Amino acid sequence: MNIEFKKHLLAHNTFGIDSIAEEFAQIQTEDELMEVLQYANKNQTALHVMGGGSNILFVHDMKGIVLLNQLKGMQIAYEDKEVVHVKCMSGEVWHECVLWSVAHHVGGIENLSLIPGTIGAAPIQNIGAYGVELKDVFVELEAIHLHTLEKKIFTNQECAFAYRDSIFKTKEKGNYFILSVTMALSKQPICKTTYGTIQQELNEMQVDAVSIKSVSDAVIRIRRSKLPNPAEIGNAGSFFKNPEITTAHYEQLKNTYEDMPSFDTVNGKKIPAAWLIEKCGWKGYREGDFGVHNKQALVLVNYNHAKGSDILSLSEKIISSVQEKFSIQLEREVNIW
Ligand code: EPU
């Protein structure tokens, strides 16, 4: 077991915030994980599990031990004529697994290309983009309880997946270390090209026969054109969730804002938070080193040396102004640590 003390986390989060972890351990094997968990439980030390750090905003230094998940490996757990079940260790980079699926012509996650972060983080917020969510291909995950050290398999249903949500953000928040995720990928994939501008992008790419490779390429091109690259400008993707409102509320707003976009849901309408934020005048806003991205208003950015607390206060101001103008309560998607 190798514990580092007073570890700077600047290189371990895509927002580029320099929080300091009291203790820090890189986890490369399950044995190392067990050892660190036993040590932490014996000393009653707080535990924080990190993957790619792509959905975290640090607002202060971290007490206790930060575990950096580096469990690697992928294997085919099951295969028949139609599907392949791929079991990926949780420290694998999500996009690497997408590239593997594209190279092996098995479909289901190509629309989720280029999402930052690790396999282990994917089920926590049920990552989604361009009409696909992880839950659509998810079979099961294996996790270990941080305190009882018991291993448990969670099925798709047991994860209680919802829009950017799962049991790991609610009832079981902070209780488990996810070890691996198994996904069912299709040998006869049906490409989903109807969402947003995928078809338009494929036309521009002059693609005749749509394949999982071309869909993946199209998604990569769209994301690169709209979302800031964390290696250049610190950010954690969408900072807020797209809010859902009742049909009555929607009708009332639509009278004033004829151009308001929306998506039908089971309970009402979902409104793009980016549109609400833009309408409140925040798009491209900059104060010192932090602000709102100028191409996608849902993304808050750190241009250089912003503090996490600055970005958090900016998010509070945005929430208030959207509440005031539209009577809609925005909810953060990013985890505040
Ligand atoms: N829009 C604006 N202003 C903007 C950007 C967008 O008004 O600055 C409006 C437009 O009407 C646009 C609509 O918002 O048509 C939707 O925009 P976009 O397709 O960019 O998607 P989004 O709803 O803003 C969601 C996800 C993204 C995901 C995209 C594509 C959430 C919180 N975000 O964003 O996920 O990539 O759809 O599927 O659901 C993430 O979770 O980190 C993330 C980037």
Question: What's the gist of this structure?
Answer:
By secondary structure, this protein is α+β, with helices and mostly antiparallel strands. The protein has three domains: 66 residues, 2-Layer Sandwich (Uridine Diphospho-n-acetylenolpyruvylglucosamine Reductase, domain 2), CATH 3.30.43.10; 153 residues, Uridine Diphospho-n-acetylenolpyruvylglucosamine Reductase, domain 3 (2-Layer Sandwich); 103 residues, Uridine Diphospho-n-acetylenolpyruvylglucosamine Reductase, domain 1 (Alpha-Beta Complex). It has seven helices and 20 strands.
Descriptive tags:
single chain; 337 residues; alpha+beta; Uridine Diphospho-n-acetylenolpyruvylglucosamine Reductase, domain 2; Uridine Diphospho-n-acetylenolpyruvylglucosamine Reductase, domain 3; Uridine Diphospho-n-acetylenolpyruvylglucosamine Reductase, domain 1; 5-stranded antiparallel β-sheet; 26% strand; globular; binds uridine-diphosphate-2(N-acetylglucosaminyl) butyric acid
